[in-house]
Amino acid sequence: MSAAILSMEAVGLSFGDKRVLDNLTFSVRRGEVFGFLGPSGAGKTSTIKLLTRQLSRDGGRISLLGRPLERATEADYERVGILSDTSALYDRMSIADNVELYARLRGVGRRRVPMLLQRLGLAEDAKTLVKHCSKGMRQRAALAAALVHEPELLFLDEPTSGLDPAARAEVHKLLADLRARGATVFLTTHDMAEAETVCDRVAILADGAIAACDDPDELKLRYARNRIAVRTRTRGTLELSKDPADVAKLPELACAGELLAVHSDEPNLEEVFLELTGREF
Amino acid sequence: MQANLRKLGALIAKDAADLAKNPTMILCVLMPVGFAVFYRFFIGDMGLAGSLRGDGGLGASSQVTSVVQYIVLSMSLCLSIGMGASVSLIYGLAEEKEKHTLRTLMLANVSAEQLMLAKGFVAFVLTIATELVCFAVSGAPWSLAGWYLLLGSVGAVPVILVSLVVGLASRDQMTAGLYSVPVLLLTMAPIFGSFSEGIRAVVRFAPTGGADELLRLIVSGSLTPAAAVAPLAVTAVWMVAAVVVFKLLYRRLLRDN
């Protein structure tokens, strides 16, 4: 991991009187999978739209691929792949024809298409018309179209939404492959377990600003509660604080043959998220 | 430049392939051809020609033939442009917007100019191809084919530009259905010019009015430079107006989408 491939500094965005993003500041390092989390309507998709020039910001600075967004060229965007929340393919064309269209548009030829479809579990359905595909198949086909030119930077807006667990696991493996070959992934998701599994770092968006940004494990430690749960043979589960006086009770319990197990009471990412945002998904 | 051409080629191939599988678009192409067949063989040869010979006072059969040919060609020209250049574009763009494929393409680094150029080109080729089939059906001498296609091309360009704007302004296919009606009526208005001189005096100012008037002059063999000035001016004004409207609205509509 190295320098920032994209960054936002004090970025603001309003829709009429409604302030959507306020003083948004974060950066994404080259080669990482960066999770962008937030409740519905928090501004995740708007942030992707700002980064992909679908919206204009009110203020602040955005840098993409090492240069200010205003100076990003068409050639820069050839290095970017985007799967948006509304990405769609042509109904009357087959999955393979759709992905081949994007391969031609990106100038990479059709050679990668069969391999990519295989990787996403679509090889057998390659000739199926998109109008006959399930939502999950469409989502995977749209992902294939976004990936066909092996982008250096990939924006994925809820890529596993609507996928079954097996397909979701395939996408997670694909994200791991992308990271292994040095691609950077900017991922929004509602699935905290997914964020914990695939992301190197996550940013939690609350009220239009970043409430926390770190490695998921670090975040969990930071918001860990000051207590441990001790399972005993005859006294049930005891809750002890991490203060020295309480911790000193552990050897006593062990000597008395009471100690069965000790658990740190660490929150999962979802609990951290709820604590930071104070909201449900 | 090479990337531009590559993208344009891919988009044109996609639009052409999609068109061939789209029942609505196939109907748009078949309708002018069907009307040409109907007018030529049922109304023209059997009905109109007979009535012109009998009651119309047109004694010379060559004159009758030219009137029938003009009616068939005029209707084919206006319908081909109306259906091929207008309806197919407005519905096609509206469908792309409704189903979010337009936005997906733009996120794949395809510029709006490339999209519009590809769509406009396919609509133009479709219109010319339809006009050619209609011409073959009309029974008009092939020496007129070049003129006919030239007039068809000149008449199609402003309609294509206006239709691109109307397509972008349509939220979905339902609104496209509403918005396409005035464009289609304006495009097809010259067909009604043969009903009376009064109607002709008005409809010659329609987007296809200039091309239709030139066609009438050519088929009747009365095309002179002086007679061509007014219809050429009408066509030129529509061309300029369409370019201005396109330039003014296109950026704004694109941003709204």
Automatic annotation (TrEMBL), chain A:
It holds the Pfam family ABC_tran. Gene3D superfamilies: P-loop containing nucleotide triphosphate hydrolases. Residues 6-232 form the ABC transporter domain. It is a peripheral membrane protein. The keyword ATP-binding applies. SUPFAM superfamilies: P-loop containing nucleoside triphosphate hydrolases. Keywords: Antibiotic resistance, ATP-binding, Nucleotide-binding, Transport. GO terms for cellular component: plasma membrane. One of its GO terms (molecular function) is ATP binding. InterPro entries: AAA+_ATPase, ABC_transporter-like_ATP-bd, ABC_transporter-like_CS, ABC_transporter_ATP-binding, P-loop_NTPase. GO terms for biological process: response to antibiotic. It is found in: Cell membrane. PANTHER family: ABC TRANSPORTER ATP-BINDING PROTEIN (PTHR42711), ABC TRANSPORTER, ATP-BINDING PROTEIN (PTHR42711:SF13). This is ABC transporter domain-containing protein. It comes from Adlercreutzia caecimuris B7. The lineage of its organism: Bacteria, Bacillati, Actinomycetota, Coriobacteriia, Eggerthellales.
From TrEMBL, chain B:
It comes from the Bacteria. Its main location: membrane. One of its GO terms (cellular component) is membrane. The chain crosses the membrane at residues 24-43, 67-94, 115-139, 145-169, 176-195, 226-250. One of its GO terms (molecular function) is ABC-type transporter activity. InterPro entries: ABC2_TM. It is a multi-pass membrane protein. It is found in: Membrane. Residues 61-243 form the ABC-2 type transporter transmembrane domain. Keywords: Membrane, Transmembrane, Transmembrane helix. This is ABC-2 type transporter transmembrane domain-containing protein. It comes from Adlercreutzia caecimuris B7. The lineage of its organism: Bacteria, Bacillati, Actinomycetota, Coriobacteriia, Eggerthellales.
